[in-house]
Every structure is written in C-alpha cells, then in structure tokens.
Amino acid sequence: MKTEPQIATGRAATEIALSVSEVTFTYHGGAQPALRGLSFAQEHGEMIGIMGASGAGKSTLAKCLNRLVPEFEGGDFRGIVTIGKTRLDDVRVCEVAAQVGMVFQDFESQLFCTNVALEVAFAMEQVGMDRAEMKARLGPALEAVGLTGFDHRDPTSLSGGEKQRLAIASVLALRPSIIVLDEPTTDLDPEGKAEVFALIAKLREQGLSLIVIEHESEELLCADRVIVLGEGAVVADGAPASVMTNFELLEQCGVHPPGLNSVLHLLGIDRHAATLDDAFEAIVHAYPRLANLNAVSGSTAAAQAPVEGRSAPQALAEVQNLSFNYPDGPRVLDRIDLRIERGEFLAVVGQNGSGKTTLAKHIVGLLKPAEGRVILDGRDRAALRAAETAREAAYVFQNPDHQISAATVWDEVAFGPRNFGLGDAEIERRCHEVLDAVGLLDARESDPFLLSKGERQRVAVASVLALRPRLLILDEPTTGLDYREQRRMMALVQELNRTRIAIVMITHTPWLVAEYARRVVLMRKGRKLFDGGVREFFAADDLLAHSSFRPPEITSLARRLGTLALTPAELAAWIREHA
Amino acid sequence: MAIYLYLERDSFVHRLHPTVKVIALFVMFWSVYWVDNPLALLPIGIFMLWVAEATGSWRNFYRYRWYFLILIFTTTIVWMFFYRQGPPLINLPIIHISRVSLMFGFGRGIKLAELLAASVLFLSTTRVEEFTVGLAKLGVSYRVGFAISLAFRLVPLFIDSAMTIIDAQKLRGYDFEQGRLFERIKRYVTVVIPVFMAALRRANNMAMALEARGFGLRNNPTTFVEYPVVLADVIAGAALFGIATGYFLIYYTGYGAIPLK
C-alpha cells in the first residue's frame, strides 16, 4: 500500500506550537495601531482560521509570526511571539524560515526560479543544506502537494493552483513546524482553490500546525478554531460551531457568514452546519415533512428553470464565429458565438486560461480576431474608431492599479472624457454624476493610490462609466475585496444594470453568479460550453462536474431538499412554504 | 506566451559551466566594443549565428527580429546626421551621405544588433540561477549576483504590466500615436506612474517572499545543481580567450577602424 509522504514533525498534540502575547504594532507613519494587544496560542497540529474585514490586521498578524513585522515592515512593535519554546526577539526573518513557512496570496511574486525542482530547493539552499539532503527532501515535498514529475517544468507554465501548491512545497521542504497561509486562494479559479484546500486538509491530517487567513468562511468550517479580528484585536476566538453561528458578530466584522448556517439562522434553527449533511439533517429534523420530498435531478431542475428569452432584433454586442491565437501559440478562442442584449447581466465563468479575458478584450477592441468578427450595435467593431467603441463597450481591468494614473480621483475620472474632447461643463457634469454613483464624491481630491483596494476598484469603474458605455465588462470585480466591499461593489453594479447598462462579469465566485447574474456563459479551453440561465446552469450536473465550477453550497442543499434556490433567503422562504 | 527567454535544450553551450557562460557574454561584448568596421564585426556575427543554430535559439531571434532590424536601420540613418566624414555621394542639406558615414552608421547598427544577439544567446542558454552562480564564482557577492539575475526575471514582468496599462489607457481614448515623436514619448508618461507603482508593489512582495524563504541567512548558500568544471569548459575558455585576444589585435593593428579613404 502506498504511504503518504510525511512532512510534519509529529509532536504531542498538547504542546504549544505558537504563542502570541500582548502584541501591539503600529506601522511607521500609521495613525492607529494595526494590532492592539493581540494574544492567542496554538497547539501542535491545530488548524486556526483567521477572518476579518480588510484592514482588520490579518496580514499584519501573519507577518508577525515570521518577523516580517517588524523586521521588514518597520514600526513600533510590542509584545512577545514564541515559536515552540523560542522567543522571536531580535532575530532576522531569514532565521525563522525553517520554523515558520509562509505562503502569500500573490503566487506570482513568490516564485523566483526557472524550474519546479530549483524552486523547491531555493529555501534549502539558503539555509545551507547539503545536496544529498536537498535531493532526499525534494521528492516528498513535491509528492505532498501532488506535483510529482513536474521537476523540470517552468513555474510560469503552471496553472494558478499548481503555482500555489508549488509555493507550499517550497516551504514544506524546510519541514517547518508551522505553516502560515495568507489568503492563499484569492487569485485562484474554483479548481485551483479546491486543490489548495484539499492540500491544506491533507497537511492537517499529517499533524502540521496551520494558520489559514481566508475571506470565505465556508473554507474554514473544518478548522479547529476560528479567530475573528476587528480593528487589530481579537473579537472572537473559538470553535467554528460557536463563531460561525454568531451572525451579528460576523456582520459587524465584515465576514461572509457560511451559506448553510445562514439558512438555518433564517429558519430560526440554532445549530451549526459544518457539512451539507449536517444542514439537511437539521432542516429535516425541524421540518419532518421535507424528508419525503425527493432531491431534484439535473433534468428536473433544468425544467424548473425559467428560460430567458433572447429574441431582440439587434443585440448590443454580438460575437460571430470568433477564433484567436497569439503568434506561435495554441488557439485561445475557438469559434465563439455570443449575443449580449441591452440591459442584461451576464456572468462569464471558467478556469484560468479558458479564454474569458481574451473574449472580453475582443469585444472592446484590444485584440483583433484571427477569424470571425465582433458587432457592436449593428456595426462591425473593426470599423469603429476608439471613441465609438468606448461609448459602446467599456472594460474594467481586474487590477484597478492598471488603470489609475492621475493624481486625484477627479482627474482620474475626467481622463477619458478629456481624451474624447468633451467640453469642461460636460466633463464636470459627468464626473460629478459617476463619482456620486460610486459613492466617492467626497474623495474627489484624494490621491487614488492611497485609497483602499475596494475604493480603487470603484474609481476604476467610475473612470469608464464617465464615457457612458452601454456595455460594461468587469474582470473579476471582487478579487481581493472583503465581504463588505464585495457587497458594496455588487450593489453598485446591480444599480448600473437597473439603468439598462448591460453587465458582463468575469468571475470565479459561485455565490456572485447565483445572486447577481441572470445568464451564464461557461468557457473551457477557448470554447463555449454553456450559455443559458443561472438556474439552468446550476442544474447541469455533468457540465459542472466537468468544468470544476462548484455551485454554492446553498444550491446543493436546495437540490437535495427538492428545489432549486440560489440564495439563503430564497431557500428559507421555500422551506417555510413547503413545510 | 513565454515570459522568459531560456530554452530547455541539451546543447554543448547549455552544458557549459555558468562561469564560462558569463565570461562568454563578457567576451562577446568586449570583442564588439573594440571594432567599428562592419567587415571586422562580421566574424563575431557569424560565430553568434553558428551558436544560435547549435543551441536551437532561432525562436528567440525570430521573436526579436524587428528589434534587430530597427536597431540596424535607425542607427545607420541617425549617424548620417552626425558623422560627416568622407566625400558625399549625394549633396543633401542636413544629412551627410558618404561611403564612410554609411559604413560607420551601419557598423554602429551591427554593433548594437550583436550586443543584443549576445544577450539573447546568453539568456536562451543560461538559467538565471546559473547566472547567479557564475557571478558568484567570479567573486561577485551572492546578494549582488542574485539582485542582478533578479532584474532579468523582473524586466519581462514589468513589460507585461506596462502593456496592460497601455491597453487600459487606450480604452479610455488615450492616443499614444498622436503628435510628433517627442509628443508621443511624452504621452507615455501616463504609463510610467502605474508601471512604477506596480513594480514597487511586486518588488516589495517578492522581497518579503525571499526573506521568508531564508534569503540572506548565508553569504554562500549551497546549490542544488552541481556544476563540475569539465574538459569542454577548459576548451571553451581557451577559445574565448582566443576570440578576445584576436579582436583586441584587430583593434590594435587598426583593422577594426573605418578607412577614411
């Protein structure tokens, strides 16, 4: 029988792996402390999930654990951090590397080498390990993360999930006693995310002490403990069952409550559901009549789903038989047909590299098709001038920092209208209107680079809205935002959609698709696999299984109960009606 | 699209010791530096083309084909404005077209193209890790060597970032092609700020990740790959010494200069 590679050091479970005592930290020039008297301890083999809104101190805390704070990011540090029995006073970051492994959110910035084996060996080289020992550790580290046989692959050629698993392998090779993962799946597609969390579960089984910082609460239901931070302090510390059912607290701290618990909460069932089975049993226990209903099969659910009409005589945008490949590269888009109607809300989903962004770039004219064409409002886009395209279709980049270049928010928003030669009065009117719409009128004189990520994202949206497009394409508009910021951004997008602006949202987040979109396009390897209503999409079991796009747990629970609901409120209402 | 130039091959150049490869890069630069005459630059150019063939690096040369052509063409033209030697072939205002100025300008163009070709060959056959090792063996401190090789890794990423930023500005109606040359250059200033911010952010993240993986703990880290010095390295070293000496002699004897008559 094949045995799992052992990478944990295997100590008694009651030993303390990490202790943080009365840690307070203020960044240089910071008006307020980022951490305030923070204390907690972690036992060996324990998995702790850390949650909280942006700015709550999660990443600062993670950096304290390997001395990046205060060694790298300077400031006023007070308190004690102890790893095992060693106090981390006056030690350099590199001296802690062998005890505390750190995996960062941005997987691109933590890979430096030209092949996988060298990447894993990098940290071992730095600590001066001899070659024979490095070679002995390489295999188990790669096997642990499921990258056996990838030794000679260029890390830049790996998928997002593989890159993040490689980053984990590179810290595992040093056999640290603790691994800290700072939002390791933020930039990953659902498949990559699932890969990383499956690996985290495996490391946990092997007895490694883990600290996982995460926005999505559902991913932390399996943790031993969850700590919620608010304004740099611990506001809750306990088992997921107690923390994840405290809805008032989660709401206050900007944490997305788990969908399953939300349904139970709405039904007045005071229980924690760690799994779908737990939630189902709790509901059936409270409403026995529901036990007799049958689970909805894919075909029945599809039949329940209302089919949306798409019979307008002229689409706002139409992609006809579009194919594309980069020079000397494989085909990125393969015979894509797509109609986008006025005022519709379309979600484009699919794995990283499936062609979503390339498709969007064709619609706005950043790329020229190898075959096929794009029609905007009845006219071939190839024949349109930049100004005409911009008035029809606008594109908000995933990273707002790729758009922002002006010194003030106002100038940033005025940038587009000025380029199109509009008069001062008109520019003033438009800037005022869009900044009001995105809630940044008061920040008009602020430097956009000093705003939060959520605010910068809204500046980016405002700066293209000022051109008054009829189609707005948003590429991953909620990446890196906390739950509160995500809700705020989506409320804005929904409001724009109400004014008949067609929305195309490229996203990896299932609950955003379920709650906001009215139509879904699923892409895979440059081809369109699905184009239809959201309910129809979440009912297509085979398709979802092949696409690795997981439906929200709430949808799976609804299917099991015999319906097709997309939100906790919708499911709770259905249960009350049928119980 | 591949971000880096390194090509995974098993040519004799790929197998050379990293120090020999760094020396080879230096020798190419050295040889090209001493001579101006296109005829004198021809042998080293042919040598580089032979290495490109032997190492299977044509793909990278094809990728940069326009840069090579632009370098040769524009340099030849530009020098006709400033290098005013020899009897003119045609009498024109401002521009001086003579056999000597044509040869000089063309020679300068070839020189720049050969410097680029040497860099492309080096990066096609040398991993950045080998670059660090090569520099360390030549006495450069590990940290400095790593920083230099890191720059090679970062430049393509910054270019990628700059292209995305240019796209974002174009979509808001910003015309980079408007106006005369200097106006166009000025218009690219709008790209500088976001590129700079993105570069700073990435460099900061990278530095944190490096320290968290133990970078800086030792001045002489061990290496995962063994780099033994073999007979081929000695032969290559001797050949490079021969090339470097040969080109210095071409310069010293005056054959590397452009004849004014």
Summary tags:
heterodimer; A: 579 residues; alpha/beta; 20 strands; 21% strand; B: two-stranded antiparallel ribbon; 2 strands; 70% helix
Fold topology:
The complex is a heterodimer of chains A (579) and B (261).
Chain A: E1 16-27, E2 35-43, E3 47-51, H1 58-64, H2 68-72, E4 75-83, E5 86-87, H3 93-96, E6 100-103, H4 116-126, H5 131-144, H6 160-172, E7 178-182, H7 190-205, E8 209-213, E9 225-230, E10 233-238, H8 240-243, H9 247-252, H10 259-266, H11 276-286, H12 298-304, E11 317-325, E12 331-340, E13 345-350, H13 356-364, E14 371-376, E15 379-380, H14 386-392, E16 393-396, H15 409-419, H16 424-437, H17 453-465, E17 471-475, H18 483-498, E18 502-506, H19 510-516, E19 519-524, E20 527-533, H20 534-539, H21 541-547, H22 553-561, H23 568-578
Parallel strand pairs in A: 3-8, 3-9, 6-7, 7-8, 13-18, 13-19, 16-17, 17-18
Antiparallel strand pairs in A: 1-2, 1-4, 4-5, 9-10, 11-12, 11-14, 14-15, 19-20
Helix pairs in contact in A: 4-5, 4-6, 6-7, 10-23, 15-16, 15-17, 16-17
Chain B: H1 12-15, H2 18-34, H3 38-55, H4 58-63, H5 65-82, E1 88-90, E2 97-98, H6 99-125, H7 128-137, H8 142-171, H9 181-187, H10 189-212, H11 231-252
Antiparallel strand pairs in B: 1-2
Helix pairs in contact in B: 2-6, 2-7, 2-11, 3-6, 5-6, 7-8, 8-10
Please give the largest β-sheet of chain B: 2 strands, antiparallel
Query: Compute the gyration radius of chain B: what is it?
Result: 22 Å
Number of DSSP helical runs of chain B? 11
Number of DSSP helical runs of chain A: 23
- Which range best describes the helical content of chain B: under 10%, 10-25%, 25-40%, 40-55%, 55-70% or over 70%? over 70%
Average pLDDT across residues of chain B? 90
Q: How many strands, what sense, and barrel or not for the largest sheet of chain A? A: 6 strands, mixed
Structural class of chain A: alpha/beta
Mean pLDDT of chain A: 89
By secondary-structure content and strand pairing, the structural class of chain B works out as mainly alpha
| H and E order of chain B | HHHHHEEHHHHHH
Helix content estimate of chain A: 25-40%
Low-confidence stretches of chain A: 1-12, 306-310
- Cross-sheet strand order for the largest sheet of chain A: 6-7-8-3-9-10
DSSP summary, beta strand count of chain B = 2
What radius of gyration of chain A results from the CA coordinates?
25 Å
Question: Termini distance of chain A?
Answer: 49 Å
Quaternary structure? heterodimer
Number of strands of chain A: 20
Termini of chain B, distance in Å?
Answer: 49 Å
